[in-house]
Amino acid sequence: MFLTNANSLYRSPLDPRDAETLGLPAATEVERFLTFRDDNATTPLVALPNLADKIGVASIHVKDESHRLGLGSFKALGGSYAVIRLVLDKATEKLRRQVDVAELATPEVASVAATMTFACATDGNHGRSVAQGAQLVGARAVVFVHAGVSDERVAAIARFGAEMVRVDGTYDESVKEAARVAEKHGWTIVSDTSWPGYERIPGLVMQGYTAIVREALRALPEPPTHVFVQAGVGGIAAAVAGHLSVALGDERPIFTVVDPARAACIFESAKAGHPVSVPHGEPTVMAMLECYEPSLVAWRILSRVADAFMTLDEEDAIAVMRRLARPLSGDPAIVAGESGGVGLAGLMKAASDPDIRTALGLGPQSRVLTINTEGATDPEKYAEIVGIAAAEVIGGNLENAG
Questions:
Q1: How many whole angstroms separate alpha carbon 26 and alpha carbon 29?
Q2: 144 strand-pairing partners
Q3: In Gene Ontology terms, what is one molecular function of this protein (predicted)?
């Protein structure tokens, strides 16, 4: 399914709150914070010239977040950044002076962090980021996971010292349970989705994602003409689209949001013209995108600056994982998890449909940017789907380089 943005707010300026959250000063501050992370490094921007030639566009670049901060996912930028910001806010309040990130490791700030408990719900990657952030600052983390989260992903979160709580039902039910328990105990919820009265912290999570755009724009030979980004609750898509609208203004690229057909809450919101929840059905292989209710802040942004919305079937997500692992001759391999290559899969599906190509203006001059949002964050699942282990894909790249 595909539709262009017919919302009444389309092409109107960002809400001032969102313009501040995703603006250039905020993005600059995110990158400054990253300089204080021992494991920080710019993630690769990978060109796929032969795939671009095959589908009839000028270039395809993939920002590969499978290398981000040791967590294998773009979400490493969000939850941990929000935790650090919240600890500094609390330290500023307690110490009655402005406390900077440069002081994060001081005894004064550590003593404040030790009194704080951060809670979240997760499909896997966001929880790892929150748990990592809590471990970095010496705080406590309690992470709620729903019934569909694999034991491997639970173990990956627990390795950062988080307390794990299983919740029957879906991701959205785990969000509600995390909020209920956190309120009861006075914990701080660090969610990557927002609801009425809860916007600032999800805004900080999204703010962390602006580093992806900053790095990509610096590395690209020319700004992109088209961007395809996947959506769960909408946070990463909104962060990228919102920052591009601020950074590039009228020259911003045509932005397409890509949803799993089985959990298309952003697509259905676009269709209805307002945020809607979609019914729970059969689970999607795109596990990190299996969300049935959009983030209100994300929708507020996307309703203004997304140009189009589309959905993908299960086989599309599986096919792009396999294509990236076994690329066209001359293109490098990329390890993309079940949700990682969905933006690229959206491009490939759009390029194969003459009507969508025309609607988006996709052609031989198009320069396309997508984001690999996760690597093999569940290695067993990855190997089962792709047919080879992630280490073999990476090893094949090394052999070809030699």
A1: 5
A2: 121, 165
A3: diaminopropionate ammonia-lyase activity
Is 199 part of any domain? Answer: no
According to DSSP, residue 198 is labeled: B
d(CA 232, CA 164): 22
Number of domains in the chain: 2
pTM listed for this prediction: 0.95
Across 176-209, b (16+ Cβ under 10 Å) vs e yields bbbbebbeeeebbbbbbbbbeebbebbbbbbbbb
User: For residue 347, which phi and psi values (nearest 5 degrees)?
Assistant: -60, -50
C-beta of residue 78 within 8 angstroms of C-beta of residue 202: no
| Same domain for 177 and 291 | no
Q: Residues with Cβ < 8 Å from 161, sequence gap 6 or more?
A: 131, 134, 135, 141
Tell which of 160, 191, 222 closes a domain. 191
Q: What is the torsional sign of CA 257, 375, 49, 208?
A: positive
pLDDT for position 171: 86
- Dihedral angle at the C-alpha atoms of 249, 253, 256, 257, nearest 10 degrees? -50
Sheet strands side by side (includes 308-312): 2-4, 308-312, 254-260, 226-230, 367-372, 59-64, 45-47
Check whether residue 284 and residue 346 sit in a common domain: yes
Backbone region of residue 277 per phi and psi (left: phi > 0; alpha: psi in -120 to 50; beta: other values):
beta
| Same domain as 382, residue 298 | yes
The pLDDT of 169-198, averaged and rounded, is: 93
259 band by pLDDT with thresholds 50, 70 and 90: very high
- Residues known to be catalytic: 75, 123
Which residues neighbour 25 within 8 Å (Cβ) at sequence distance 6 or greater? none
